[in-house]
Amino acid sequence: MPTSDTITLSQADYVRLLVHGTTAFELLRTALELELFERLEKTAIGLTVDEVATALDVQPQAARVLLLGLSSLGLVEVHEGRHVNTPMVRRKLLRDSHRFLGPLVDIQARVINPAMGDLADAVRENRNVGLRHFDSPGDTLYQRLTAYPELQQVFYANMGDASAKALEQLLGLYDFSGLRHVVDLGGGDGTNAVAIAKRYPDLRVTVFDQPTVTTLAAERVDDPDVASRVAFQPADLLTDPLPTDADAICYLHIFEIWSLERNTELLRRCWEALPEGGVCLVYSFVSRDDGTGPMSAGLVSPYFLTLASGEGMTYSARDMAQAVRDAGFRQVEEHRDLGFSHALVVGRK
């Protein structure tokens, strides 16, 4: 079983994962739902099939099927008939792990996967055909989720979790100490705004997002000092005027949602709203400049086409920098090859 960050598969097994990927995902989702990994972790010697069946309150045959699937995927090891977690599970699939991927599995299962069967039609028609699974008004997933409060919670729980992990990297890279007021454009559940405000006690942050999201975000701020410096402005990102009293705008995890043309248009509005010397921070997942990967970019991009907006994808850092220049920013800095497959482009007016 793999003990490093590299897993080697035969070509035949790689093809099997491509064909049976839905089954592999459901094996993982089921193990998380039944809290199997936590149950295995409670004992130093692991559990037999019968002990797993008892712990999960299922029949031994069902437990055997589940454990066979998980061991074939390298998630569970078997030592003398007893099942234990692999190191990868301990790093990323236990609920008390800093890298826990549960929120990502939830959004994939409940929001994204139901629509991905429409990818072929989305490619043919160049639009987010998968929106048909959400019967409510709006041209994007973000608009339609407002009619599904529970799914909206699932969606922003994942976005907040992913943002928290990537934001720590951004805060270690960019110094906000010279700024007075930052606008977090499309700031979601406020994760970014709260983290920035906590790190910089003299800084004001405004979350600029749709009304149902800002209401959700405001409920999460329980620190009185932070609450006094974090504001929530309900607005339509595409049409409403941006605040003009900020000296920085955070354009975090927005670039991948839209076409290059729309991104340039939105960044131009950021340029117009900022004072001379103001900065715009564009921080996003990225692909390679030559369009060959990485796998994270290749597997996430169909979501933006099929469901989210019908026009986005995971772009390269070169695409981001060019859009910032085309929007009018005169000084453009690129920070490439960051962790979590991210890049930061800083545009100064």
UniProtKB/TrEMBL annotation:
InterPro entries for the chain: COMT-like, COMT_C, COMT_dimerisation, SAM-dependent_MTases_sf, WH-like_DNA-bd_sf, WH_DNA-bd_sf
Pfam families from the UniProt entry: Dimerisation, Methyltransf_2
CDD domains per the UniProt record, alphabetical: AdoMet_MTases
Protein's UniProt keywords contain Methyltransferase: yes
Domain O-methyltransferase dimerisation positions: 19-88
Span of domain O-methyltransferase C-terminal: 118-330
Gene3D superfamilies: 1.20.58.1390, Vaccinia Virus protein VP39, Winged helix-like DNA-binding domain superfamily/Winged helix DNA-binding domain
GO MF annotations, alphabetized: O-methyltransferase activity; protein dimerization activity
Keywords (A to Z) from UniProt: Methyltransferase, S-adenosyl-L-methionine, Transferase
GO biological process, one term: methylation
Keyword set includes Transmembrane: no
Name the record gives this protein: Methyltransferase
Organism encoding this protein: Micromonospora maris
